Amino acid sequence: MRPSNAGNLSLTRPLTAEQAWRVTSERAARCLLFFDFDGTLAPVMDDPTAVQPAPHVLTAIDALAGVVQRIAIVSARPVEFLREQFSSVPHVDLYGLYGLEHSHDAGPTVTEPMALPWVRPMAELADRARAELPPGTLVEYKRLSVALHYRTAPETSAVIEAWGAAQAERLGLRVQAGRMVVELKPPVDRDKGMVIGEAVKSAGCAWYFGDDVSDIKAFTALRAREQADPEFFGVCVAVANPETGQEVSSAADITIESPEALGDFLTSAVRALT
């Protein structure tokens, strides 16, 4: 069990939601809320282009934005996709492609300069994937990465993973494993943990909500901030799923059973903080 002295309270992990929101309410003006998108705020679907936030999510986030210091979405999706999903909630920060892109307060999309030379190679890689990978593979081109989904054809996973590893070796790319997906990314030092680590340097409190293995790096960033500053209060929330749920939940303070349940959880958080 990990003790916490946040808010002058002697708390022992794992926390209850009530304990966590009580401490958060004491420092809401200096609190940041970070959310992954797929599998966290929205259910995972066979067609990633059809995904939308779960019920009550947008309404709750809009309400919470008026209570806490900042809210940010930190996702593997491109910023432009996130911008469409959160068009009704303009006052959130958007970090796309694991932080290779970002937009603040509905401003323009800013791309990490070191990643820009990889736009054309990624487009060529996406074309190659469509031509060479077995039927059932969904190739998602994201401008600065290529995601190879095998959710509708799980029997092809070994072939797709081997192909992805070979292309990463050939081009010097990085491989990001996920929920029935292999993603190929530029060799640029940027991930969710780095995004969170930078964003919370002056914060008094932060929550991170995620469902996949890439989100564990964000959890680790909150833990590191707590160790560096005993007055900082961080909460790691996992959204359960049958694929990576146990690994992520074991690294979290609180587990929510689904994106739909998270919508209700956030709605209750609005009441707790106001």
From TrEMBL:
Pathway the protein contributes to: Glycan biosynthesis; trehalose biosynthesis
Coiled-coil stretches noted in the UniProt entry, renumbered to this chain: none
Pfam families xref list: Trehalose_PPase
InterPro entries: HAD-like_sf (IPR036412), HAD-SF_hydro_IIB (IPR006379), HAD_sf (IPR023214), OTSB-like (IPR044651), Trehalose_PPase (IPR003337)
Cofactor(s) the record lists: Mg(2+)
GO BP of this protein: trehalose biosynthetic process
EC top class, as a word: hydrolase
Keywords: Hydrolase, Magnesium, Metal-binding
Catalytic reactions of this protein: alpha,alpha-trehalose 6-phosphate + H2O = alpha,alpha-trehalose + phosphate
Highest taxon, organism lineage: Bacteria
Catalytic activity, EC: 3.1.3.12
GO molecular function: metal ion binding; trehalose-phosphatase activity
Function: Removes the phosphate from trehalose 6-phosphate to produce free trehalose.
Record-stated family: Belongs to the trehalose phosphatase family.
Name this polypeptide is given: Trehalose 6-phosphate phosphatase
Lineage: Bacteria, Bacillati, Actinomycetota, Actinomycetes, Micromonosporales
